[in-house]
Design brief:
The N terminus is likely disordered. 23% of the residues lie in helices and 39% in strands. By secondary structure, it is of the alpha+beta class.
Length: 199
């Protein structure tokens, strides 16, 4: 097994406040990580993340939480598996701890990631990612940033759309950018998130 997640003195957490929102995170780590340990090949990355989502989503749901997203990152040979969770009223440090322990145990059994890695569980923060049709429906009327894999000829060759989320229907995202509505196919979106608004 390539797990580096441990318990004991290597467990730590923190709370960072920003405006009225509070972002929590909880990290389990191991000092044994070698610099060359287990970099994930890009071709397998989505396959691994899909497996992690299949494992983590029901475990988060058992805690009354929604798995928003999962990603693999890190540099210098040090991999980090990040899980973003949320619930109505916000996420607490205890929520992150509970999901981290449950997912860590399940990943020990399934072992979908080769090599050593750290597991990080946190709230999605102010710039919450939008991945599913339900995410887009939930944030109708919010300011969002949507980026596509390439320029869209039907949308003035734009790649980035910053505006008000007007709708989501039949796999198409409707965004009002400065009074003009653009319809962006969800399948062409590389990244979408709620844009923080500071007053």
């Amino acid at each position: 097994m390539g797990r580096s997640v441990t318990s004991g003195p290597n467990i730590f957490g923190a709370v960072a406040e920003s405006g009225s929102e509070v972002a929590h995170f909880f990290i389990l780590g191991s000092p044994e990580l070698a610099p060359e340990a287990g970099a994930v090949e890009m071709g397998r990355k989505e396959e691994i993340l899909d497996k992690v989502r299949q494992i983590a989503a029901p475990l988060a749901a058992q805690e009354g939480l929604e798995l928003i997203d999962a990603e693999i990152g890190g540099g210098g040979g040090r991999q980090i598996l990040r899980l973003f969770i949320d619930k109505s009223g916000g996420v607490s440090l205890e929520d992150c701890t509970a999901v981290s322990r449950a997912v860590s145990t399940a990943l020990d059994v399934e072992d979908p990631i080769e090599g050593a890695y750290d597991l990080e569980v946190s709230s999605p923060g102010l710039d919450r990612p939008l991945k599913t049709p339900e995410h887009f429906q939930k944030f109708l009327g919010s300011k969002v940033r949507v980026k596509t894999f390439g320029p869209l000829p039907d949308c003035e060759n734009r790649r980035t759309f910053l505006g008000i989320l007007q709708g989501y229907e039949n796999g198409t995202i409707a965004i009002d950018v400065d009074g003009k509505t653009f319809r962006v196919p969800h399948a062409l979106v590389s990244k979408a998130n709620v844009e923080p608004v500071f007053e």
